[in-house]
Amino acid sequence: MTDVLLKVRGLKIGATIYPPGEKSREIEIVHGVDFDLAPGKVLGLIGESGAGKSTIGLASMAYGRGGVEITGGTVEVNGRDILSSGLRDVRRLRGAEVTYVSQSAAASFNPAKQIMEQVTEAAIFQNKFSKKEAEERAVELFRKLGLPDPENIGSRYPHQVSGGQLQRCMTALALCPQPDLVVFDEPTTALDVTTQIDVLAAIKEAIHDTGVAALYITHDLAVVAQVSDHIMVLQQGAMVEYGTTDQIINAPKEEYTKALVSVRSIDHEEKQPTDTPVLKVENITARYKGTDFDVLKNISVELHPGQTLAVVGESGSGKSTLARVITGLLPPSQGKITFDGRELTPDLPTRPLEDLRELQMIYQMADTAMNPRQTVGTIIGRPLEFYFGLKGAEKQKRIQELLDEIELGDGFQDRYPAELSGGQKQRVCIARALAAKPKLIICDEVTSALDPLVADGILKLLLNLQKIEDVAYLFITHDLATVRAIADSIAVMFQGEVVRYGPKSQVLSPPFDDYTDLLLSSVPEMKLGWLEDVIANRKMESAGN
Amino acid sequence: MRIPLAALIGLFFTGLFFAVAIFAPFIAPYGMAEVVGDVWEAPSDRFLLGTDSIGRDLLSRMIYGGQTTIFIATAATALSFITGSVLGFFAAVSGGWVDQAISRFVDLIMSIPSLIFALVVLSVMPTTITILIVLMGLLDSTRVYRLARAVAVDITVMDYVEAARLRGEKIGWIIFRETLPNALSPLVAEMGLRFIFAVLFVSTLSFLGLGVQPPQADWGGIVKENKEGINYGVSAALYPAYAIAVLCISINLVADWILNRTTSLKGGRG
């Protein structure tokens, strides 16, 4: 046994890109990365999207995703160079010595097969265990990962367990063949915070108990700080900093790492409510057509001009449905909405143009919120033309003003959405909303699809615009750090009800109700040992009860 | 921009067919209905493809026939695409009972085999070219409607369409500015195929005697007039088949290339 399990030297990875209207060409996406991983240790790979972290993770299984090719360097697993060995050797490696946990368990499991069959498949295929042994191992892992009813859960189908449970099943799948190394590729990113903490704790314990080494890939530094021994910070395919978790979190050397560590520390002074709210939602109850289940139950909230109301909750809590009701896309079955002193009609087609103009919306996925066949100029220019009848030079001037306001500047008018980065796309969506000169903008998870640093930029921009334009935001999010940064008042939603509502200072200070407490304590903090503290606290509390 | 070889070949032959169709009177060596030789003469210097069942020059018949066939097919395809896609988009964007009403009506029409439907209509209506075009266009538009609606239903749930609705846009803007540009790729690919079906359809009708009426020439009619010749080893009836095959392949080569080009615009829909 060597003391280095995974040895990566000068790893270079290239990809072929096909720019429209041009010849395809080769680009390098990882520029010579070196690292070692000792048996039983966990290395966190962190970086924004496009940093090459997943690509590096897959390269440690000698795999390049479609169009991606490993062009240089060496990867050694247990002292064998796996890049130069043939496909037959690589096959013996994958699923036996190195296994992989992907971001979306829901998309990775075959919906037509039982979980047990899939969890034990690799172990049996690689002749590491007999069917019986593998199934015993799987049950043991299910138990270790805290899955309910470990003896029988394997006979369920993937759709019969929750997202968090399925992610844990996938971890069991990866650990079942008793590998030396597991590559975790953003295993908790798609989960709610309250679920994430359980999965994280389960993964950490499983890594610890089985003594397996792991590459833990994520964009969330606070998460990786909980599980890894070392952290490697990547930016655009190159290493920025490498060190122990303690050093990276507490004493980062590079500017980029410092920025990552201090992300989400925007401070926002809470504003006092005024006399007349711009939006008043009273006793709203709503259900989707053809169902007999109330998605929203008796919701009442208020939002004052120039302020931000954050609506927080997990997926399925009804927060986006609230936005649909306010915009008129889903007429409520009960209750009324007052906007700027006048009552809004329940459904969209009957609303006067003035109401539509003053109530704008920004979406989570900027990609699908913009027509891919329209230029930025058309996208921003349309509301100007539509609401204010602006044409020609006047319209051009206003578009440029808006582009300046969202800090994009010249040369963007003729670009198509595909030619923009994620953050730029979201900025264009903001400009489109602003173009209507609204009194209220509904922001539906506008930062959750973005990298932390980019999301920070968007939040700062939104706060800045609020000052200039005096626009109110209804900010829907699942991320409490975002709430702290932007909200004046907060409504916490759980299963269609508002469980806690009030000014930010009040909502975020004790005494808490159970759900808010759970939600708040589940948000990963950028410090070592946070996970253990929370778990210990919870155990103590439940013992006390 | 480089045009791939397959598309070049397709473009060349498609262009050739259309050019010959447009300039038929200048290219054809003899008149369309002019009897110039013996019955079923073999190909020679005078008659490149030989003569037909009553001694007309077959090449001239083919050229004029191509003009009629291609014109009818083009007009019918255009009509079917305009009607079908506008109705399809309208149904998808409106949803609800509007969608149900149009879709069920289209299902009703589609449940009747289109050839039989056409034969019934043509047996009571005068068989003029206009009626042929309208009939074929409307029958074919049911197929286009299905595709356009299916594609548009996917598009109308996108956030940008919702954003347009929230802005208060009228249905015209949503159909022509938000939906159409994103639905174009599959529609263009379908158009190549539909054009060929239209060529086959009009040829079938003419072969059955209910399409283009003599002495007007069209490819289906030429097959009909010369089908007896096959018994005597005269290949006159096969030329229209070759022409249809070559036109079919070349148009689809072009359609494939357009499809590839438009989907390779990043963010475009497949």
UniProtKB/TrEMBL annotation, chain A:
Write out the entry's keywords from A to Z. Answer: ATP-binding, Nucleotide-binding, Transport
- Annotated localization: Cell membrane
Q: One GO term of the cellular component aspect? A: plasma membrane
Q: Please give the Gene Ontology molecular function terms for this protein.
A: ATP binding; ATP hydrolysis activity
Q: How does it sit in the membrane?
A: Peripheral membrane protein
Q: Which GO terms describe its biological process?
A: peptide transport; transmembrane transport
Any idea where the ABC transporter domain is? 8-261, 279-520
The protein in question is named: ABC transporter ATP-binding protein
| This protein's record includes keyword Lipoprotein | no
Automatic annotation (TrEMBL), chain B:
**GO biological process annotation, one example:** transmembrane transport
Keyword Transmembrane helix carried by entry: yes
Report domain ABC transmembrane type-1 positions. 66-255
Top-level taxon of origin: Bacteria
- Topology term for the membrane: Multi-pass membrane protein
The keyword Transmembrane is assigned to this record: yes
Where in the cell is the protein located? Cell membrane
Write out the transmembrane intervals. 6-28, 70-92, 112-139, 193-212, 232-259
Keywords (alphabetical) are: Membrane, Transmembrane, Transmembrane helix, Transport
A GO cellular component entry from the record: plasma membrane
Q: Taking the first listed entry, what is the main subcellular location of this protein, grouped into a coarse class?
A: membrane
Q: Which family does it belong to?
A: Belongs to the binding-protein-dependent transport system permease family.
Q: What is this protein called?
A: ABC transporter permease
Which organism encodes this protein?
Roseobacter insulae
Q: What is the lineage of its organism?
A: Bacteria, Pseudomonadati, Pseudomonadota, Alphaproteobacteria, Rhodobacterales
